[in-house]
From TrEMBL:
Example GO molecular function: oxidoreductase activity
Keyword NAD tagged: yes
Entry-linked PROSITE patterns: ADH_ZINC
PANTHER family: GLUTATHIONE-INDEPENDENT FORMALDEHYDE DEHYDROGENASE, ZINC-TYPE ALCOHOL DEHYDROGENASE-LIKE
Protein name, as recorded: Glutathione-independent formaldehyde dehydrogenase
Length: 405
């Protein structure tokens, strides 16, 4: 008997609403579940009724068939929910709490977690350090684009909102705390953004726009966002960013027109491995373009924040090298300029509490910046298609009717 509608990846370009089992305090076998995780007991977990769960560019890599995600994988790593059951080992999280779930699943007990590196927890994914809900190679924890979801290590992972009514009122902003707001902020922060900094952010998708909001919050002097999607660039301009259209040529030249110099202090890659080329090459995929261009246009001694995702297996890669995540990076240039690089999953827990306060105290308008758009769970397949075409929107699924506006 079905008790939990969810969104699953079926085949390239196809996602479906499927019936899945209601979660238990044990990880059962299913699509993408690592054999070593089958039967894993989760007494430290909580079961949530989903309040909001967002579609992400990271999901799109799987849905486009650009990863080794198996058919039937239940998607969804951006989750906000109401706690409706807690396991026997949960002490502090209570039924009725409204919580934000960091997309990284982490144990709170390993060396990396103790150093707040929750994106590379050692204990939750038997394949490799780092885990997430509803994601290929991430251990098999079931995704949260569903009515209900199990969240392990609940006392450690879940960020409780102080007030239920306030949380539901600001839910379209707060739902961005599970991933893109901390991720974008981390991109800006790890690129060294501070008061007066000049910043170039490649990509005006939700992560790039969140990085722009993050850079503004950190006090940047100039925030320049690049993309080839005019609708998304207009979205960036709507909250005070400068923009460059990379289909018109090298961003370096357009940056010079804005700043008077062709370089910035801080570079952010919010694109990842499905990057398109610049100028006349913008019709083609050119996976190393953003990294090479950021090395070129970031001042010597600067830093690159690289939230954009790079994979270890890409069946659709442009050549054999790209198919195993090997790209033609001009590292000599980065080395010569003493650039620093920060890659990997954003350790959400490092930032989510403070960014929550910034939202609750009306210091940022992240939902508006990314054009958060609430839709029913049944409308997810259409939203995936629209997002894939480059809609300047961040889709927020509303599976249980909590979102009223
Ligand atoms: N590190 C993390 O923890 C983390 C978390 C969330 C998302 N991500 C990754 O961040 C990236 C962005 O996510 P999103 O949801 O905004 O995705 P998205 O696909 O909506 O946005 C990517 C944008 O990049 C643009 N683009 C393509 N080539 C470009 C180029 N050469 N220069 C400038 N822009 C270019 C595209 O037109 C698109 O608008 C993805 O790779 C996603 O997987 C990483
Ligand atoms: Zn995401
Ligand atoms: Zn850990």
């Amino acid at each position: 008997m079905s008790t939990n509608s969810a969104i699953a990846y079926k085949s390239p370009g196809v996602v479906e609403v499927v019936d899945t089992p209601y979660p238990e305090f044990e990880l059962r076998d299913g699509p993408g579940v690592n054999p070593a995780n089958i039967g894993r007991k989760v007494p430290h977990g909580a079961i949530l009724r989903t309040v909001a769960t967002n579609i992400c560019g990271s999901d799109q890599h799987m849905v486009r068939g650009r990863t080794t995600a198996p058919a039937g994988l239940v998607l969804g790593h951006e989750i906000t929910g109401e706690v409706i059951e807690v396991g026997s080992d949960v002490e502090f999280i209570k039924v009725g709490d409204i919580v934000s779930v960091p997309f990284n699943i982490s144990c709170g007990r390993c060396r990396n977690c103790k150093e707040r590196k929750t994106g590379i927890c050692l204990n939750v994914n038997p394949d490799r350090p780092g885990s997430a809900y509803g994601y290929v190679d991430m251990g098999g924890w079931v995704g949260g684009q569903a009515e209900y979801v199990l969240t392990p290590y609940a006392d450690w992972n879940l960020l409780k909102f102080p007030d239920r009514d306030q949380a539901l009122e600001k839910i379209l902003d707060l739902t961005m705390l599970s991933d893109i707001f901390p991720t974008g902020f981390h991109g800006a922060y790890s690129a060294g953004v501070g008061p007066g900094s000049t910043v170039y952010i490649a990509g005006a998708g939700p992560v790039g726009l969140a990085a722009a909001v993050g850079a503004q919050l950190l006090g940047a002097g100039a925030v320049i966002v690049g993309d080839l999607n005019e609708e998304r660039l207009a979205q960036a301009r709507s909250f005070g960013c400068e923009t460059v259209d990379v289909s018109k040529g090298d961003p370096r030249d357009q940056i010079e027109q804005i700043l008077g110099v062709p370089e910035v202090e801080c570079g952010v890659d919010a694109v990842g491995f499905e990057a398109r080329g610049h100028g006349a090459d913008s019709a083609q995929e050119a996976p190393a373009t953003v990294l090479n261009s950021l090395m070129d246009l970031t001042e010597a001694g600067g830093a690159l924040g690289i939230p954009g995702l790079y994979v270890t297996g890409d069946p659709g890669g442009i050549d054999e090298a790209a198919q195993v995540g090997s790209l033609s990076i001009r590292l000599g240039l980065g080395w010569a300029k003493s650039l620093s690089f920060a890659t990997g999953q954003c350790p959400v827990m490092k930032y989510n509490r403070h960014l929550m306060q910034a939202i609750l105290q009306d210091k940022v308008q992240i939902a508006k910046a990314v054009s958060a758009t609430a839709i029913a769970l049944e409308d997810a397949p259409a939203a995936y298609a629209e997002f894939d075409k480059g809609a300047a929107k961040k889709f927020v699924l509303n599976p249980n009717g909590y979102i009223k506006n």
